[in-house]
Amino acid sequence: xxxxxxxxxxxxxxxxxxxxxxxxxxxxxxxxxxxxxxxxxxxxxxxxxxxxxxxxxxxxxxxxxxxxxxxxxxxxxxxxxxxxxxxxxxxxxxxxxxxxxxxxxxxxxxxxxxxxxxxxxxxxxxxxxxxxxxxxxxxxxxxxxxxxxxxxxxxxxxxxxxxxxxxxxxxxxxxxxxxxxxxxxxxxxxxxxxxxxxxxxxxxxxxxxxxxxxxxxxxxxxxxxxxxxxxxxxxxxxxxxxxxxxxxxxxxxxxxxxxxxxxxxxxxxxxxxxxxxxxxxxxxxxxxxxxxxxxxxxxxxxxxxxxxxxxxxxxxxxxxxxxxxxxxxxxxxxxxxxxxxxxxxxxxxxxxxxxxxxxxxxxxxxxxxxxxxxxxxxxxxxxxxxxxxxxxxxxxxxxxxxxxxx
Length: 406
Prior knowledge:
Number of helices: 13
CATH class of the largest domain: Alpha Beta
Helix content: 25-40%
Strand order of the largest sheet: 16-13-12-17-18-19
CATH architecture of the largest domain: 3-Layer(aba) Sandwich
CATH topology of the largest domain: Rossmann fold
């Protein structure tokens, strides 16, 4: 039976971080085979290792799939060719064999030199400028005729995600997230990391779902905004609508946040909140005239914290400031990511996934949700840095606020 093959190299902490066993599993799971032609194993925990593999497969298509997945683990083709690119022939349409990025640090070989890909994020194309020796990411809808898009596997290397060499910071959270793990010590670890980020003037991004308001935890986020622990907020129509509903009427989805009981006619309150802000024209105007005097949105405007709110087809209103054009929303979100060093995603699945796709792997990411499957979903989708805590949003934010401010 005839086969095709390719030579690949891997180096780094590929053994103690289980990268090499993952590579072997990937090859076999995809119907390929391998031979270890050379291996050098580090003698101590600080030493790196090296392996050269001959990877074979029954056909080119299978080999391409295997190589694509191995590159995400840091494998590099042994031959040192420059990266291959093809010209875009139609706006918004990539060449057939375009390379799709991970969120891991990536380099491409241009003119014999390894160049770092700028603005790395997940599931986008890489554009190269050979004259300027530059490479950068761009989503599909932002490619235009004449752009040179990376295709195939030559001249690409990815720095694999490695576990922490020292057991600190987020060592309390592993991939086997459990709702029964101790919560308080975990939250205090997050608080300590947030203090370190702010001490060096790094940005902290909060991605918020409406359950933050439904559980009565909005006041804790407002406190964190006032004390400079929130520099950017991502969310949707629901978070701003129910935040303003709670500020104007004391309810969320018509439920009194003080006593937890449904208010008669309260099901209209979120519509009344939207209508009130639309009547004055904007959130900023509502604050100016004294209509809006508290809440997350109020504090964000007062502290000049950007709120990037991406709408959806189910939105009522929407509230002024919500972006209904999804490509524009993505663009606005990407504008805010530079400088972000830590992200907290609380009680929101879809906005968390959308944000996770845009975040480079070096940004510390904490996912908090009462549903364990939501917490693990980001890591399953390739956001290797996403670490989770299964708990109620109100409990988490109350304890986090106390750990940071008391």
